[in-house]
Amino acid sequence: MHRFANPTQFMRIANAIFPWVAGLAVILFVIGLPIALVTSPPDYQQGETVRIMYIHVPSAWLALMVYGTMAGGSAAFLIWRHPIANLTAKAAAPMGAVFTGLALVTGMLWGQPMWGTFWVWDARLTSFLILFFLYLGYLALGDAFEDSERGDKAAAILCLVGSINIPIIHFSVTWWNTLHQPSIMKLGGDGVKSSVDGSILLPLFVMLGAFTMYFFAVLILRLRSELLAAKIRNARLSQAAVGDALGQAAE
Amino acid sequence: MSVFTTVLARDLRLALRQSADSLTVIAFFAIATVLFPFGIGPEANILARIAPGVVWVTALLAALLSLDRIFTVDFEDGTLDQLILSGAPLPVVVLAKVTAHWLTTGVPLIIMSPVLAVTLHLPAEGYVPLMLALLLGTPTVSLVGAVGAALVLGTRRGGVLLSLLVLPLYIPVLIFGTAVIEGAITGVPVTPLILAGFAILALTLCPWAASAALRQAAE
Hints:
Order of helices and strands of chain B: HHHHHHHHH
Mean pLDDT of chain A: 83
Largest sheet of chain B: none
Shape of chain B: elongated
Number of helices of chain A: 6
Shape of chain A: globular
Distance between the termini of chain B: 28 Å
Largest interface: A-B, 28 and 28 residues
Helix content of chain A: over 70%
Oligomer: heterodimer
Radius of gyration of chain A: 22 Å
Order of helices and strands of chain A: HHHHHEEH
C-alpha cells in the first residue's frame, strides 16, 4: 500500500488505468442512456416517469459509495499519513456532494408525479438531505483554515465521525418515519432477488456501471491535476529560493 | 488529585467566575422559545402540540452557542498546549472539560425547561419525560459538540461552521428526545433508554475523536 504513496508511482498506475475506466464509462453511457431513456418499457404503474430512476438510483448509489471512499481515505490518511489517500478523499468530496444533490433533485422531480408533492419527510429523502449537509460540512471545514494541512486533518476526523453517525442517523430517521417504498433489492441466499423486472433491471445496472466508471475517471483526473498543482507550487518555491540566493550573492 | 478532578474543578471555577456566560445561554434558551408563540399564535392546543419539539430545538441551539467555550479560551491563551505537553491522557482531559460544560450548560437547561414548557402549555404528563429526555440527551450534545468545537479551533468563521458540522449529528438525539415526550403525552410510551444508549456510544468515541482534533489543532 505504501508503494502508492509515491505520487510518481501512483500516477503511473492511475494513468495506465485511466483510459480503461474512461472508455468503459463512455461505452456504458452510450449503451445505457438510449436503453434507459428511450427503448426500455414504461412501468405499468408509473409510466414514463420511471425513467427518472435510471439517473436517481445511480446518483444515490454514488452518494453513498463516495462517502465510503472518503471515509476509507481519511482513515488511511490519519493512521498511516498516506498523502494520496488524503488527496483522494479531498478530490472525491465535491463529487459526492454533487451526486447527493442530484439524487435529492431527481427524487423530488420523481416525487411530484408519484406522491403529488415535491417533498415528503420520508426516511430516505431525509437521510439523504442530512448526508448532503455532512458533505457540505466536510467541504467547509477543509476549506476554513489558513494552513491547508490543518484543514486536511480536521476534515479527515470529521469524515470518520460522520461515517460512524450515518447508520445511526439513517436508523433514527427510518424509525421516525417510513413512507418510502421498501428496498427493491434484497440479497438472499440465492444471490440478488428483486421485485423489479429484468427489462428495467438491465438498463439500471448498465447506468450504475456507467456512473461508477465516470466517478473513477473524474477522480483520476482530479488527482492528476492536484498532484500537478503541488508540483508547480514546489517548483515555484524552489525557484524563488534560488532567486533569493542569487540576489544575496549579487549583493 | 487525578487529572479528571483537577481539570473539572478548574473549569467549574472558571465558569463560576464568569457565570454571565452560563446565564446568557439560559437567556437565549428562554428568548428563543418565547419567540415561537409570536410566530405561530397564542392558541394553546397548537402550542401544546409543538412544545416538545420547540423546547428540544431551542435547547440544542442554546447548547450549540455555548460549545466554543469548551476549548477556545484555552486554545487562545496557550493552556491547551500546556495540557497536551503535560503528558496527561488527553481523552480524560476532554472528558473533564465536557463534564464541566454539561454541568454549566446542560444542567441549567434541564432546570429551565419545565418553566418554558409551561409557557407553551405542555400537557402535565409531559414534564417528567421532558426533563428525563433532556437529562439523558444533553450529555450526547456536549460530547458530540466537543468534537466539533475541537475541529473548528483556529478557523476564520468558527461559529457558523460549528453549526454546520454539529447540528446534523444532533438529529438522532432530537428525534428520540421529542419522541419520548410525545410518547408520554399520547400514551404510547417510547423508552428513553435509547438516549442513554446514544450517550454511552458518544462517551466511548467522542473523547478520542476530540483529542485527535485537539492534537492537530495544537501542532
